[in-house]
Amino acid sequence: LFWADIFAAYAMWVMMTYLTNVWKISLVRAAAIVNFFWGTVLMLPLAIQKLVDTIISNYWMLLVSSLAYSAGQKILFYTALGLIAFGMSGHLVSIGGFMADQMTDSRAEQVSMRSAKLFFFSFCGVVLVPIIALTAFPYIKPWKIRFGIPAIFTVVATLVFLSGSCSYRRRKPLGSPLTTVFRVFVASALKLFYRIPRNASELYERDNVDEIYVVQHTRSLRCLDKAAIILPDKTLEQQEGNRWRLCRVTEIEETKGLLRMIPICLTFIIPGVVSSIGFTYFLEQADHLNRKVGKLSVPLPILLLFYDIARTQFTNLYAKFLNSFGESQSKKYAPAIGFATSMVLAILCCITAAKVETRRLDVIRSHGLIDKPDDKIPMSMFWLLPQFLLLGGFDGVCEVSIACFFIDQFPPLLFKYVAHIFSCTLGLGTMGGVLSIYLVGIISERKGKQNWFQDTLNKSRLDNYYWVLAALTAANLVLFIVVAILYAFRDSRLENLEETEFEETDGPFEDDAECCCFC
């Protein structure tokens, strides 16, 4: 299944060039299709996780998403994109949890040396085979074969997965902690006209049981406290029987913590907009530039390789920066500093991209290529290397710092959804890139001027758009600093997560396989 994900991800990575070169779709429409696809992939896991926790297990979600994957390779284009997006999202949600379900303590003791070696070589194959295959992909010219190979791997992976169905350990859904949030809203709405007690100790809380996780009451967002009001006309036992009308103070406080994060989470949307230009407009620019280094023609994915290298190195630098805080109280501010740093990298990336695009347009005009969108431009593809490196550094630091922020600040009872809330914010930004193009295009047409976004790349003014993104990112950085100053940061618990990463713990982090994979 990992193989299927890697091959399908590559096929979707080159989708922008396929839409513009083969289907001859306009630049803006092709970018919108790609952005909506990746935005859907990033946003669906939140809903799928809720589905897995309440209705179906990880096994059935993997099976359904794999079948959707396979069907998505065969049918009409737009329907196929939806099915592939669902398949990718289903795998993102359930593979980690499903693997954790199989590795119980008793099964781990029964693993033979032969099985361990087989698992090791299989894991190496997961890493090496796609690398070798993807290196050869760019030299395959027919698009039917390029998309056919991922389709074959997806079908084979699904059949192999099905072959072990009789031996899989399947855990029944145990309920979603996200339901707690909905319960608090419903219970507080049903008691809208009741008065909140002055003494918080009169609110409902089960603090007499040692093993129950308890959060102290706070006086903010007091309208939600109504969910914990104990009604005088019924016994406590009767009210405890209806969990949609009575909630614990701890559950209310966790919901409050989630709501307090909304302002700072809104600043995470713009990074998604900036990140989305990497697999749309950057890729389209590179596709029309000279790829030769001497007599050797370099494949387009070489830029993806440099992007990944930069992303990895900047992530490692941020990890060292995070570890330098040790156990100090200042460690809780490290994610905010990292995010602000990533915004600076994003600004530099957009400025660099604008400068390079201006040069590319100058070369186009000087060689009379404005009306020849299919001709190669006599300018090296490696002019785009700095912006890909900066984009990789930005994505690496941004994603890790946001992840660390969620791990530190997210309510413990809802911790299972950290990764999905995180990806959902980036998905909103990716889809927001489509809206930004539309709005910027309308504004650029004022006073009878030409729209910056034309049917072809050569006629468009992407350099101006990159300047707009740089300005938006700078404004977002200022807004983030203001919101971060007003935000009350919790103490960092990253060290605690590292210590218990592969252990079973009691309390709010119990049985959280997805959280370990996310870390």
UniProtKB/TrEMBL annotation:
The keyword rRNA processing does not apply. One of its GO terms (molecular function) is transmembrane transporter activity. GO terms for cellular component: membrane. Keywords: Membrane, Transmembrane, Transmembrane helix. It comes from the Eukaryota. The keyword Ligase does not apply. It is found in: Membrane. The chain crosses the membrane at residues 75-98, 118-139, 145-162, 261-284, 334-356, 377-397, 417-444, 465-489. It holds the Pfam family PTR2. InterPro entries: MFS_trans_sf (IPR036259), POT_fam (IPR000109). Gene3D superfamilies: MFS general substrate transporter like domains. It is a multi-pass membrane protein. Belongs to the major facilitator superfamily. Proton-dependent oligopeptide transporter (POT/PTR) (TC 2.A.17) family. This is Major facilitator superfamily (MFS) profile domain-containing protein.
